[in-house]
Amino acid sequence: MFVHLDIKLMKLFRAVSTFRHTGVMPSYTQNPGSSVKSRPNVVKSVENRSGAAPNQNRIGIRNGPCHSHATERNHLGGYQVVENDFKQISNYLKTIVERYSGVKKNSVDKVFCVGYRRTGTSSFSEAMKILGYKHCTWDPVVWDWYKRGKFRTILRHAKYFDSFDDLPWSIIDFVKIIDKTFPNSKFVLLERDPDEWIISFEKFKIKLGGSCFNEEYKKLRIEMFIERNNLIKTCFCNRPRDFLEINVAGDDSFERLCHFLGLEAIQAEFPHLNKSSS
Q1: Which strand (E) or helix (H) includes residue 46?
Q2: Beta-strand relationship, 135-136 and 79-81
Q3: CA neighbor of 81 nearest in space, from 150, 151, 28
Q4: Which of 58-67, 167-176, 220-229 has the lowest average pLDDT?
Q5: How far apart (Å, rounded) are the C-alpha atoms in residues 137 and 124?
Q6: What is the pLDDT of residue 151?
Q7: Of residues 72 and 256, which shows the higher confidence score?
Q8: Which one of 83, 160, 229, 255 counts the least CB within 10 Å of its CB?
Q9: Domain that holds residue 6
Q10: Count of beta carbons in the 10 Å neighbourhood of residue 3
């Protein structure tokens, strides 16, 4: 599948290879009061590191802005690596990863799972990865940001991902903020039979050090679970193109998810994670 890599990318890989073998490094200058590295005026060659006088004309590096070419040949036949190379290499590698990591790429901005815990969120996470999405799941750092009210930090963090599940992404009030921030996104509610869900949720809490639920508490939690899901449905009641409700245990759920995202189903069923503990 890498046959189609363009020549420019291959040249950049050669630049990296030469850098690793010859030790050619860009000479950075630090602007006072700034944490951003400026473009190098002079690129150190192998002769520079050995103590010989540099020959700027021979390697084609001038004082001031770098050449428009990403790389310049030196007398060894390799490539001098300048700061712009690293940026281009990073961008190209990101493109290649997105191109070959899965089948994903459509007009959807982001996909948020708004299902509650123990409804199949782990299976959803795995499914999104299979479909080629860069997925963000539970992260204690993000949760700490949420508790401290650092919503802007969370939303900036979200720009680096394609799909999400678990807290804080499934909190109703935060879902409304997400919906306004990423208006072209889609939302998936994971449903589960309440009686099955409470058993799984109780096991989950016990695993975290909690105690068994009494019948009264079970009844209360089930009512909260149903009410919570109904509120989510109300938020998207007039937006069928943006909202999907599925049960990951359903025979056609994975196919419905793919159709909802504008993708072809590459397998018949959802991958089932944490099934034995549910």
Answers
A1: helix 46-50
A2: unpaired
A3: 28
A4: 58-67
A5: 10
A6: 95
A7: 256
A8: 160
A9: 2-100
A10: 4
**Do 68 and 164 reside in the same domain of the chain?**
no
Query: DSSP labels for 128-150?
Result: HHHTT--EE---HHHHHHHHTT-
State the helix-helix crossing angle for 151-158 and 172-181, rounded to 10 degrees.
60
Question: Which of helix, strand or coil describes residue 178?
Answer: helix
Of 270 and 193, the one with more pLDDT: 193
Same domain, 149 and 196: yes
Residues 13, 147, single domain; the answer is: no
Among 182, 55, 205, 186, which Cα is nearest to 118's? 205
Q: Are 122 and 274 in contact (CB under 8 A)?
A: yes
Q: Is residue 71 located within the same domain as residue 118? A: no
Cα 128–Cα 158–Cα 269 angle in degrees, nearest 5? 10
Alpha-carbon distance values, 195 to 118, 210, 221 (Å): 12, 19, 10
Tokens found for residue 36: 């951003």
Number of structural domains, the chain? 2
- Select from 75, 100, 125 the last residue of a domain: 100
